[in-house]
Design a protein that fits this description.
Helices cover 22% and strands 34% of the residues. It is α+β, with helices and mostly antiparallel strands.
Length: 181
Amino acid sequence: MASLVDDSWPIQTGMTITVLQNPLRTQLHSTGETRFSVPSHWHSMHDENHVVLKGSMIVTQNGVKRVLRAGDAPCFTPRGVIHSLEILPGEEVIMEEETLPSEAQEQKVLFFRSLFFPGVLGSFFSMMQLFYHGDTYPELPLGNRWLERLMTVVVGGWVAPLLGYRLPDKRLRMDPKRFPR
């Protein structure tokens, strides 16, 4: 499990996240033992670039699936685009994610460290609080952005703290409009 200071940590069987420097980015390494997926979500304040260094993965953007392979150009996901990621078992995959603007990358590292901190993934309220602070909005079945944002703000920003939930790392403040520096 992640700590708030390690530069590399396991996230599930055969899967590790590493923080890389110059430029600051995160790397996901899958040995191919298990399936890994990131459910559909979107961001309002940052864009993402994904590049596969080894193997392949499935990237879905606004309902359009494509296979991203080692050697392909980076897959750019602009803010506001609903996207998901999937790595299938049976193949070793190394993928890097970079957040744009680059000033947001440090916050993204804090997001990943907090996401995989013990107890967070198993708790709806912890996840929603992390989404609220980390500029992440889950896609809901109706596909209504206003409702997705409202749920994240109400549950993650108000209800979770009222119930005593706390972020593993209080420095996570991805949205500068919501959390002026």
